[in-house]
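[09:14] KT: can someone run the structure on this one? pasting the chain below
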Amino acid sequence: CSKCISLYEGAQKSTFQNFWNYVDVLICALSITACAIRFWNSTAAVEISRIDSKDIDTNILVEDFKTTTMTSIYIYSITQVFVFFRLMNFLDVMSGIGPLQLAVKRMLNDVAK
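[09:31] RB: done, structure tokens below
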């Protein structure tokens, strides 16, 4: 059993030595967060549709609905940026696409200046 523990500890150390593994965990966490907000938002939309407009001011609820929708879209957009950079890391290895990636990096650097 001590071999299993040492094997687990060694795998754990080697897994998080690579920077991109942290990015992968961040991508997963952001995706789950965006989906959870969107799911919560869809259940809130059902509740808004059931509320009688005479009982409560639905404008406040609609604004909250729009805000949470935009929040989930922003989180998903940030996630897609990280996915793009992760994909660019994979394309660096391919000989045909590697020079294209270098050109894109240089263009992004020029745009950032």
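[09:33] KT: thanks! The first helix runs from residue 2 to 15.
[09:34] RB: yep, looked fine to me
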